[in-house]
Amino acid sequence: MAKTITLSASLTWPDVKNDFILRHDGLAIGRIRQDGGTWTWQITMPMTMPLWARGTADSLEESKRAFAAAWGRLLNETSEERLERAWELERAVEARQQRRDAR
After folding, report:
1. CA neighbours within 13 Å on the CB side: how many for 30?
2. pTM more than 0.90
3. Which helix (H) or strand (E) holds 39?
4. How far apart are CA 78 and CA 53, in angstroms?
């Protein structure tokens, strides 16, 4: 049985309604935003990304589906060790940013 992948999207900025940060297990993993009439999406993790880890679509819903498919592919094709190293780096960056914001 396939593992369920849960993604959450939140606005990058509260007053901008067409730019979203995507998260998996609490970590920022990508972005979907509208650029003119086109929606762009990309997986953003601290590791080299393949060309298929970004794209464009005509709607927000199409972008979400394409992102989810690419995310599932990335999880299937990337070793657990490589993903964990990237997530460790991502957690360290987020912790540093939170400390900086607290000052």
Report:
1. 26
2. no
3. strand 38-43
4. 12
Tell the residue number behind the tokens 């990237």, with chain if given. 86
Q: Rounded CA gap, 35 and 57, in Å? A: 10
Sign of CA dihedral 7, 10, 11, 13: negative
Mean confidence (pLDDT) of the chain: 86
Measure the CA–CA gap between 91 and 62, rounded to whole angstroms: 29
Q: How far apart are CA 6 and CA 14, in angstroms?
A: 22
Q: Which residues in the chain land under pLDDT 50?
A: 1-2
Helices (H), the chain: 60-77, 80-102
Length of the chain: 103
What is the spatial distance between Cα 15 and Cα 29, in angstroms, rounded to a whole number?
Answer: 21
